[in-house]
């Protein structure tokens, strides 16, 4: 699949396998045009999982720097940090960082992470890795916090599907010509002048409530667009039969992963 072929139609949602008779197809749907693209992926035929349960962020595209990139992840039931170094081909646990992280991003050569209490750390991979706390924990009255515009997600119970997002709070009141993408992978801010069809001052979100699985609630359904000006959300016009109760969950694919909000 050529990334530039439909670049102007992104961001996409990468959906789980949808045609089990084929067994190796993947569906991608544009959230701006609602166009759907189906591709045959060789990785599926081997039976390997395409999307794991961890949040993951790359320091650079592996196809550009195959021997010099870092992959940092939030993993495990206690949401700890670890990273993979392509240079040394090793995984390293960052135990000094603590537990219960919600989001990680890579900006200007450095990794940042925020935990469920609002503590923000700067992490630089190395032997050993260094961890510096740059923002102290604060009273967080929400379900999850994201580093982009320090957005806080609020969930409520839904008797039909278990839970749903009902609002977001962001440290920036009016985001103007920026759209925020939140979910399982890196949180991002994209300019609507670059991404055709995206709506500014809105948060596009996918389901990343992994804690629900501890209580037997199957997720994947909590997906939509939240308008911060109108303070209300609406569903994305996607194939709900593919998303509802699906595993792995949908993740964002964008023309680039270096969007920044300023």
TrEMBL record:
Residues in KIB1-4 beta-propeller domain copies: 51-227
InterPro entries: F-box_BR-signaling, KIB1-4_b-propeller
Entry protein name: KIB1-4 beta-propeller domain-containing protein
């Amino acid at each position: 699949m050529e990334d530039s072929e439909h670049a102007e139609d992104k961001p996409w949602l990468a959906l789980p396998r949808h045609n089990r008779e084929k067994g190796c197809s993947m569906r991608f749907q544009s959230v701006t045009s609602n166009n759907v693209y189906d591709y045959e992926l060789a990785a599926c035929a081997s039976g390997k999982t395409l999307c794991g349960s961890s949040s993951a962020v790359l320091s650079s595209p592996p196809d550009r720097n195959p021997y010099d990139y870092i992959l940092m992840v939030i993993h495990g039931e206690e949401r700890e940090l670890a990273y993979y170094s392509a240079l040394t081909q090793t995984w390293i646990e960052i135990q000094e960082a603590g537990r219960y992280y919600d989001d990680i991003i890579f900006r200007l050569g450095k990794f940042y992470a925020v935990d469920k209490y609002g503590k923000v750390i700067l992490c630089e991979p190395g032997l050993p890795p260094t961890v510096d706390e740059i923002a102290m924990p604060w009273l967080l009255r929400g379900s999850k916090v994201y580093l982009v515009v320090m957005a806080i997600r609020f969930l409520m119970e839904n008797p039909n599907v278990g839970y749903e997002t009902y609002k977001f709070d962001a440290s920036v009141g009016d985001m103007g010509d920026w759209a925020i993408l939140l979910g399982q992978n890196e949180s991002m801010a994209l300019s609507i002048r670059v991404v055709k069809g995206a709506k500014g001052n809105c948060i596009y979100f996918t389901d990343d409530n992994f804690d629900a699985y501890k209580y037997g609630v199957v997720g994947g359904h909590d997906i939509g667009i939240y308008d911060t000006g109108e303070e209300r959300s609406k569903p994305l016009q996607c194939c709900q039969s593919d998303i509802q109760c699906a595993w792995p969950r949908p993740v964002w694919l964008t023309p680039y992963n270096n969007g920044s909000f300023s």
